[in-house]
Write a structure and sequence with these properties.
With 169 residues, the protein is an all-alpha fold. It is built from four helices and two strands; from the N terminus they run E-E-H-H-H-H. The protein has one domain.
């Protein structure tokens, strides 16, 4: 994405879909995350949810560290993002398990017997939203982890060899 000091090494384990390097892919996903966090910040600004605004600002700053890690070739900058995203993944997984095991079972049985499927549909939709969010967060975490692994193995450790095939992109 940026002009790194060391060109990207083309090896199958560092390529995504055989055409994009892991560093570029991680930067692309982070740019999308920053854009979405900015939109969320503007929306929370309009309804004045200060706690959510603070979360959006923190997320934008932490995501910007991933772009700085790519630009400055410092793998330690990836760590804060990976830790925070890992915590969010665990929270989403626990929320999904609680929703599926307790809430959905209780409300679906009650609503199908008494009131109708409104509560059941709401909890199923919430479970679907958490599942999609978990998948997107997991893909982003994996891409950033792969970019960090590449940075540690090839650039930061000094294992970069000039006779290796270099990426054109």
């Amino acid at each position: 994405m940026f002009r790194p000091q060391y060109p990207d090494i083309v090896e199958p384990r560092y390529m995504v879909c055989r055409c994009l390097h892991v560093r570029k892919f991680a930067s692309f996903l982070i740019l999308i995350n920053i854009l979405l966090a900015t939109v969320a910040f503007v929306l929370t600004l309009s309804i004045q949810h200060y706690y959510n605004m603070l979360l959006c600002i923190c997320y934008i700053i932490v995501s910007s560290l991933v772009l700085a890690a790519d630009k400055l070739e410092r793998p330690s900058f990836y760590t804060l993002f990976l830790v925070i995203q890992g915590i969010f993944l665990v929270i989403q997984l626990v929320a999904w398990i609680i929703l599926v095991m307790f809430v959905t079972k209780k409300y679906c049985q009650k609503s199908l017997n008494d009131e109708g499927p409104d509560d059941c549909l709401a909890s199923v939709e919430l479970a679907q939203i958490i599942t999609i969010s978990f998948f997107i967060t997991g893909c982003t975490w994996n891409a950033v982890y792969d970019a960090r692994r590449y940075m540690v193995e090839k650039v930061y450790s000094g294992n970069f060899k000039l006779n290796t095939t270099l990426a054109v992109l």
